[in-house]
Amino acid sequence: MGAPENDPRLNPGSLSRRPHNPKDAPGATRDISGEAEDTVGDLPSKQKDYNQELAKPDPSSIRKPSFSAAQSIGISDQTGLHIILPSSASRATSSGSLRDLKNCVIDLSIPTAQGAPFPGLMLKNVDRCLIVTGRVSGPVHINDVSNSTLVVIARQVRIHNCKNVDIYLHCASHPIIEDCSGMRFAPLPSCYLMEGDESTENQWDQVDDFKWLKTTPSPNWTTLSEAQRLDDEVWTKVVPGKPGCSVEQILNKVGIPPK
Fold this sequence. Notes:
Elements: E1 29-30, E2 36-37, H1 50-55, E3 62-63, E4 74-79, E5 82-84, E6 96-102, E7 105-107, H2 109-114, E8 121-127, E9 130-160, E10 163-171, E11 176-178, E12 181-187, E13 208-209, E14 221-223, H3 232-238, H4 247-253
Parallel strand pairs: 3-5, 4-6, 5-7, 6-8, 7-9, 8-9, 9-10, 9-11, 10-12, 11-13, 12-14
Antiparallel strand pairs: 1-2
Pfam family, one: TBCC
InterPro entries: C-CAP_CF_C-like (IPR017901), CAP/MinC_C (IPR016098), CARP_motif (IPR006599), TBCC (IPR027684), Tubulin-bd_cofactor_C_dom (IPR012945)
Organism: Hypocrea atroviridis (strain ATCC 20476 / IMI 206040)
């Protein structure tokens, strides 16, 4: 409800606008310096549960949670959803996470293409998913991911305990894998490139395998040939989805086999 017209807070000359002396307030205490200390703390902020919102039945095959009031992106415990973050999620300024996801298509690229990159991102316990992470100014940690396709733009990428994953990558440093198998790397699709990317060296194929110390090439990763890579039409027309297009159809189009 709005304040009534006679509310003194609306009158610049009212007593409520005058400087407040904390020592006159009932319940105020003093610290050892003699300054008054307010005993009333800030009201607790209530964080919206976006995962609960995503779990609600929806006739649309595509979910677009706003995350407009969230400081970080956190999506977890979801199955069979197509999630696209709109530009309002660009307000997230803390590292985010994608956890415990199965048979999902998730695109985080729009907020970071129109605003600042995410500072960091964690992917953990992901199976049979297509994930476009958007731009990340710091590290991306990828743990326990299998049978999936990822699009990653980051300063650092650390990959642990993953298998059968295709990664389309733009990375300013050597990607590092450990305890992985069946990893395939490719450069970032051209439709995700932005002005300034060419000035940063992309070391997508300079992979360091911490569990392979021999001089011969590691058997745990390889690169995708141009013929094996998905073309731009898949990224621009199939991945965004359209009415009537299921998540399974999109996953099949990007080469993720049915379970």
